[in-house]
């Protein structure tokens, strides 16, 4: 996997500060010829040499490491488009996440990404700010080369309009949110693979819910009081637990353990339903579902830690995940 990253752009380097391209082993005449390219063509030429793709890879590696590993194991013809979609999802998520972000600023950021989707579907003859943003350039390239459903892209943005301090009422509402944010991305990856299959769509829907719930559980110790815990209110009322107790997550709090167990069980149920459809999913797109390996590993660590979110095994990276993913990819299983 490291070799894939090193060799991704082995022929050309891009200096973002100077805006000049430097070709390895190039002669004087070659370098002068490159620098003579008009400014309006340099952005397009840069993308042809992989700068936009490399930027998307770096973005996903930094903010979505587990899915970065999964995407590296996809077939070569799907990898660039998959990184573009995941980088777009990272940018949208970052627009509303973080400490001390004003709600009005978050809305403006989401409005920008929502309008950018329409710009990416415009003909190439219409110039726009898309060419100045590497993630949008890659997304426009993906839209131009693949048949993608604009509805799924819009769901990634509109689902984030939910205020982070607004708690989920029920597990069903939690599942609906994760389906819009996580399942939509998996459905887009299936479209990148050129597969339109009902069983694959059902597997993507279930896996997206499982991955989304697990991700929201992992975010509770990190977010603290900046956002409401993902534990639905109906679960809190059932066990008589407050949101403050969920945030503190003391090891001797039996009520908190029961709440985390109920939500993690919902994620595990969807994960099992997705894997039951394994043999019905077309073989050429099964690697798209490799994120099931990371989700299953986290839920297992959480179970062994007695559903304590702040346990050291649940807050750090899984060092064995690369080996697990590679092993599963060898047999084309998830």
From TrEMBL:
Subcellular location(s) of the protein: Mitochondrion inner membrane
GO annotations of cellular component type: mitochondrial inner membrane
Mitochondrion found in the keyword field: yes
UniProt keyword annotation of Kinase present: no
Keyword entries, A-Z: Membrane, Mitochondrion, Mitochondrion inner membrane, Transit peptide
GO terms, biological process: mitochondrial respiratory chain complex I assembly
Family named by the database record: Belongs to the NDUFAF6 family.
Official protein name in the record: NADH dehydrogenase (Ubiquinone) complex I, assembly factor 6 homolog
Source organism per UniProt: Drosophila mauritiana
